Amino acid sequence: MEVERVQALATVGLDALPAQFVRPSHERPENSRAIEGMTVPVISLSQPHHALVRTIHEACREWGFFLVTDHGIPPQLIRRLQEVGGEFFRLPQEEKEKYANDPSRGSFEGYGTKMTKNREEKVEWVDYFFHLMHPPCKVKHEVWPQHPPSYREVTEEYNKEILKVTEVLLELISEGLGLEKNALKATLGGDQMELEMKINLYPPCPQPQLALGVEPHTDMSAVTILVPNEVPGLQVWKDGSWFAVDYLADALFFHVGDQIEVLSNGKYKSVLHRSLVNKEKTRMSWAVFCTPPHEALIGPLPGLIDDHNPAKYSTKTYAEFRHRKFNKLPQ
Ligand SMILES: O=C(O)CCC(=O)C(=O)O
Known about the structure:
The protein has 331 residues and is of the alpha+beta class. The chain has helices at 6-11, 49-62, 75-89, 93-97, 151-176, 183-187, 258-263, 318-326, and strands spanning 42-44, 65-69, 110-112, 127-134, 194-202, 214-217, 223-228, 234-238, 241-244, 252-256, 273-275, 283-291, 297-298, 316-317. Helix 2 (49-62) packs across helix 5 (151-176) and helix 3 (75-89) crosses helix 5 (151-176). The model has no long low-confidence stretch (mean pLDDT 96). The protein binds 2-oxoglutaric acid (AKG).
C-alpha cells in the first residue's frame, strides 16, 4: 500500500501546504493562539517526599500535566536516544519503508503516517515510528529499527530507566489519591504493565500557521512521559485556553492519560494537548505511553467511590476502551 510520507513531501520544497493538511479555520494555530507568560508546573523529584506528593497531586488535579526534573535519567542517555531516533529518520526512504506499519490491518508497530479516509478529513504534519518496549515477553525486536545498529541497546537502556521513573511517579500519584503506594501499578497489570515508544518526526512545514503536528487529543494511556528535541511545539489545554510548553533541557513531559482519569473517578483529568510545527526546523519527540495490558479491567478504584461520590465512569477492559476510542464510540 502506497503511503505519502510527510518527510518526503517536505524535502521536495513545497511553497504552499497541500489541502489535506490545512486545518479548518477554528483549529489553525493562527486563530487559536496560546496564552503567553504562564508556565506549566515544573516538579523536581529531589524535593522532600511529603512536598512531592502534594505538588504532584496539585499538578495532576489542576493541569493533568507537568515537567519532571531531577529524575535520575542521565542526560547522555536522552541524547543517545535522540541520536538513534534521528538516524533512523535520516535513512533513505526505501529503507524506512521496510518497516511500514498498516493500522487498517491491525499492524500498529513500525513506521507510519496517518492517512485521510475521505476528502474532508484533515491529516497531521507528522511521521512516526511506534513499537512496544515492555514487558519483555511481548516485545518484537524484529519490528524495531535495525539501523542504526545501536538502536536496540540504547532503547533498551532507556526503557529500563523510564520504567523506574514511571513506577516512582505511579507510587507518588497513588499516595496523592490517598491510596496504598502500589495501587495504581497493580491495577495497571503489575509486571505486565506495558510501555510503548512513539517517535514523532515533524519536518519543517511551509505554512505552520495553517497546520497541526498532532491534533487536539487526550492519550488512551494511563500516563505518557515524553522528551522532545529543543524545538518547542507542545501545547496543553487548561480552563478553556491553550498554554505553550517551553523547552526545558532534559526535563520529562508528564501527561495524565485516560486510564488515570477513569481510575481516579475524574479527580485527575486526562490532559488535552496538541503540537504545532515550525517553518524552518524539524521537531522530534519521544513519547512513552504506559498502558495496562488489553485484558485488564479498568474502572473507578473502589477506594475512591462511595455514596457521596458515585462512579462517573463504566468499568471495562482496556481492549474495549481502545476499540471505542479508535472508533469514536461513547465510552
Ligand atoms: O510531540 C508532542 O509533543 C506530542 C505528541 C503526542 O501528543 C502524541 O504523539 O500523541
